[in-house]
Amino acid sequence: MSQQARPDIVVDKAASRLSDLWTKEDYWAIWLGFLLIIIASFIYFGSPADSVKDGIANANATLEAEADKAPFKTIAYYNAFRAKSGLTGSGTETGKTIAALIKTPARWGDSPLKAFFLSKEEADATNAAKARDAAEAKANAAEALSLAQAAESAAEAAGFADTTLNAAAKAAVDAWNSAESKAKSAASAANVKPYNLIPMLLIFMVVTALFFAIGIKCMGKNVPRFLIGFIFIFLVAILAYFLGNQNTFRKYGVGSEAWAIILGLLIANTLGTPAFAKPAIQTEYYIKTGLVLLGASVLFDKIIAIGTPGIFVAWVVTPIVLVLTYIFGQKVLKIESKTLNIVISADMSVCGTSAAIATAAACRAKKEELTLAIGISLTFTAVMMIVMPMVIKAVGMPEVLGGAWIGGTVDATGSVAAAGAVLGDKAMYVAATIKMIQNVLIGLTAFCVAVYWCAKVDRVEGEKVHVSEIWHRFPKFVLGFLAASILFSLISQGYGTDLSKALVDKGALSMLNGLRTWFFVFAFVSIGLATNFREFAPYFKGGKPVILYVCGQSLNLLLTLVMAYVMFYLVFPDITASI
Which of 82, 155, 204, 261 has fewest C-beta within 10 Å? Predict the structure, then answer.
């Protein structure tokens, strides 16, 4: 019997594959990600959600009754709508506790201390300064309400049959609704609460360290050394959030993720990464767990809402740009490293760092190549999220088209939403949804790269490509990403639009997305701490990586704009009109 066919060896291989489930990083990213998903589901979909469900049902009953009652939106209609909008999973007592636990340092301007601490005296002073505006806005709303009630009563007395009275009532009610919104905003601005984030940050550090230590233990690594090192990782992450939430840096798109890499690089290449911190530099462990959580936010019902035009923008342009950019890098720029080429191409064309991580795992790129791709991506993302809304406004581009253009080209999901919000709510919705549709391609991209690398790039002449080799290369955490997407899509569809928005979007996903952002920052800190500037030199020959990104992104901008215009305004104008 040959050595390869011996039963004991076959059994050993099977046992080894089975042990991967609790000894390999990819699987632990799935287990930990789903542990958090289960916890979030229990918190936001369990009994505390009953009050939200009842409140939405009552509000919808009022909205339906008022819609049948009058040919315009009444005072009661707007009050019910406002009440429904305030019913969210994150608004429950448990939701508020979770939000406080995962809260990042606050936004600040001239006073750094406000990122962590606001005294009662400072809060009172802020409230006193804004109390006059709040009182004035409240008085305006009260006056507008009296006028609206009188106009609505007059229209109702005529059985809503007098078009003149109906028009007057509609104008008065709309004016009151606008005044009421301003009054509530002013009241909120004059109701600042004192805070001290330090205790919760310390608790979150301990909880997170123990959470990741579960996998560290099962993977056979030193848990005490990891826990000690994690304190350093966490403190650098806090500093990254602190700088990223400074008003000026935030305005220009230099967020916490960028600062995490910058700080890590500065420490590693000046003082040197402390030896005690190195056991906690677990870049892929953090980011893969975060990517499993990202899957929960890819909801099929939201994809369907944008429909065919959004799918064309995300799923047709993206692979074309990826393939052409890779070919351009190989044939024109002659980039020596094919792995660097494909990682930059995927990062730029698909969805930024998430796609870069998955692609790097599939083609076994070096950590320096991944760091370089992410660094370039974050730099250009910061520029694009500021410049693109300015250009869109300057040329008078329609809001839906501008949102679609941003969603298909800006890399990071958070940056997409921020850039879209500059144009308006409609643009932000379209941009975020198209980016969500694009995120679906993370798994497919990783699979295709794994197949291509096995069949072409790394194939030894004369040897057959085995399915097991493709499976071995395929990043398993992508399965967790897809499973989370399917699970939450089913939950979202089962709840329906209103409950899904309250319990999924503004409930479970508020927790999972908050945690995902933290995990990404841990990963970016680790990337920086593990990188030596001198290791970058061979990859920067002639500035080829930057040229590749700029040329690829230029193609991406052009094709996305053309496709978005054709799909949203020429082929499917009815869908655009309904957004």
Answer: 82
Residue 246, strand partner residues:
108
Q: Quick one: average pLDDT of 347-360?
A: 87
pLDDT tens across 272-328, in order?
Answer: 999 999 999 998 899 899 989 989 988 888 788 777 888 888 889 999 999 999 999
Whether 307 and 572 have beta carbons less than 8 Å apart is answered as yes
CB within 8 Å of 10: residues ≥ 6 apart: none
> Please, how many CA atoms are within 13 Å of residue 167, restricted to the half-sphere of its CB?
3
Q: Could you report the per-residue pLDDT of 557-574, keeping only the tens digit for each?
A: 999 999 999 999 998 888
Q: Where are the domains of the chain?
A: 56-87+120-193, 198-578
Top-confidence residue, 217 or 478: 217
Cα separation of 247 and 107, whole Å? 7
* Chain position carrying tokens 């301007």: 109
Question: Do the Cβ atoms of 347 and 377 come closer than 8 Å?
Answer: yes
Q: What is the DSSP string of 311-373?
A: HHHHHTHHHHHHHHHHHHHHHTS--S-HHHHHHHHHIIIIITHHHHHHHHHHHT--HHHHHHH
CA distance 172 to 165: 10
CA distance 443 to 445: 5
Q: How far apart are CA 348 and CA 371, in angstroms?
A: 14
CB of 437 within 8 A of CB of 311? yes
Whether the Cβ atoms of residue 246 and residue 109 lie closer than 8 Å to each other = yes
Spatial contact of 420 and 287, defined as CB atoms under 8 Å apart: no
> In this structure, are residues 339 and 363 in contact, taking their beta carbons and an 8 Å threshold?
yes
Q: How many CB atoms lie within 10 A of CB 139?
A: 12
DSSP secondary structure letters along 511-562:
HHHHHHHHHHHHHHHHHHHT--GGGTGGGGGGGHHHHHHHHHHHHHHHHHHH
Residue 457's Cβ-side half-sphere holds a number of Cα atoms within 13 Å equal to 20
Cβ atoms within 10 Å, residue 379:
16
Q: Is 246 helix (H, G, I), strand (E, B) or coil?
A: strand
Q: What are the Cα distances from residue 133, in Å, to 106, 129, 138?
A: 24, 8, 9
